């Protein structure tokens, strides 16, 4: 019977070892991710390493796709990621990226895009987006947007309150930027980026919902109607002053923090990286995490967002599921240690029983020999 228990203990130890071998890699990865869940840069490194290890060709494939789409900035971001990750690229591929980047940065191309962004407020590339930011910095763009949306509001028509609130906030911040000699420029750029991304229909649904709530009370409707009624883009100074009076800075704290973080992304990784972030992030907390990633990764940021999407900004697997892997590993370890203990106990018990049986047998043999010995006379 003791042998049966010993066999069961050994079988349990073997089973626990087998299960532990299978569970350990998942538990190790889960522990690493959980430890990095509050550090977006470390979390990004973990995910990137896993993604690129499983398919290194992803980088060159995405470079080819970006070049075919005419997005040399994204292609250059993947080249930077490849260099950082020690992924070799063909010389002709990197040369094509360099040529495309140089062409996009040419004076003629940039001047045309800049003028388009300045006049229309629509941005499709870095040049036109720079023009949009410049237009807002000189209040022309914000006045245009406030007058347009303000008239919709006054006439009871459908109004984009988010664009209205962002433009009004932009006018107030622009004044602060001049006073502080440019120190508010990142915030100014952030407001423009959010507004432009919204106008282009590329802002995530989560941010649209959040920003819509946040901007509802940012503008005093009655004061704005009066400003719009007498305002004009051709009288920017007077119009801007009248519109700023309708802006409620005490209600704009959340919007300002969001714009600052967007501006941080733009400063560290470029305007397009900021727009890509606004497309995938669903709330201000994720924008703040993106800013930390951009400040650490710089030019690689667009490639990271392209590869990982929103997963670069948060845990894609719930903390509960990750904890269950760790819990499973602990249970397996407990089972393995318990099996070792049971095996040792059963083996020790078996050895003691055999030793006792041998001693008893030797004693009986000695007694028999003693009993059979002839009596000495």
UniProtKB/TrEMBL annotation:
Protein name: Uncharacterized protein
Entry keyword set: Membrane, Signal, Transmembrane, Transmembrane helix
Transmembrane segments: 312-337
Organism field: Bradyrhizobium jicamae
Signal peptide: 1-17
């Amino acid at each position: 019977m003791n042998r049966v228990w010993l066999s069961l203990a050994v079988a349990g130890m073997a089973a626990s070892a087998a299960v532990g071998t299978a569970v350990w890699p998942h538990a190790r990865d889960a522990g690493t991710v959980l430890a990095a869940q509050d550090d977006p840069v470390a979390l990004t490194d973990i995910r990137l390493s896993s993604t690129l290890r499983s398919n290194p060709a992803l980088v060159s494939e995405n470079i080819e796709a970006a070049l075919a789409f005419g997005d040399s900035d994204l292609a250059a971001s993947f080249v930077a990621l490849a260099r950082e990750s020690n992924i070799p690229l063909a010389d002709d591929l990197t040369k094509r990226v360099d040529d495309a980047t140089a062409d996009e940065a040419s004076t003629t191309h940039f001047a045309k895009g800049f003028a388009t962004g300045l006049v229309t407020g629509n941005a499709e590339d870095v040049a036109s987006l720079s023009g949009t930011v410049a237009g807002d910095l000189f209040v022309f763009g914000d006045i245009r947007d406030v007058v347009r949306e303000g008239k919709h509001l006054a006439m009871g028509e459908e109004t984009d309150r988010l664009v209205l609130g962002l433009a009004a906030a932009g006018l107030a911040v622009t004044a602060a930027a001049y006073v502080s000699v440019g120190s508010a420029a990142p915030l100014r750029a952030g407001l423009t980026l959010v507004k432009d991304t919204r106008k282009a229909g590329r802002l995530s649904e989560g941010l649209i919902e959040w920003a819509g709530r946040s901007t509802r009370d940012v503008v005093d409707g009655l004061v704005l109607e009066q400003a719009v009624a007498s305002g004009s883009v051709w009288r920017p100074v007077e119009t801007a002053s009248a519109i700023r009076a309708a802006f409620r800075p005490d209600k704009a704290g959340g919007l300002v923090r969001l714009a600052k973080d967007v501006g941080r992304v733009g400063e560290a990784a470029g305007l397009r990286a900021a727009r890509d972030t606004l497309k995938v992030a669903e709330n201000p907390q994720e924008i703040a995490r993106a800013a930390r990633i951009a400040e650490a990764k710089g030019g690689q940021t667009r490639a990271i967002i392209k590869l990982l999407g929103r997963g670069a900004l948060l845990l894609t697997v719930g903390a509960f599921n990750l904890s269950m892997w760790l819990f499973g590993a602990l249970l397996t370890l407990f089972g393995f240690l318990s099996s070792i203990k049971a095996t040792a106990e059963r083996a020790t018990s078996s050895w003691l029983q055999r030793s006792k049986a041998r001693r008893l047998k030797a004693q009986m043999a000695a007694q028999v020999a003693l009993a059979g010995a002839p009596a000495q006379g």
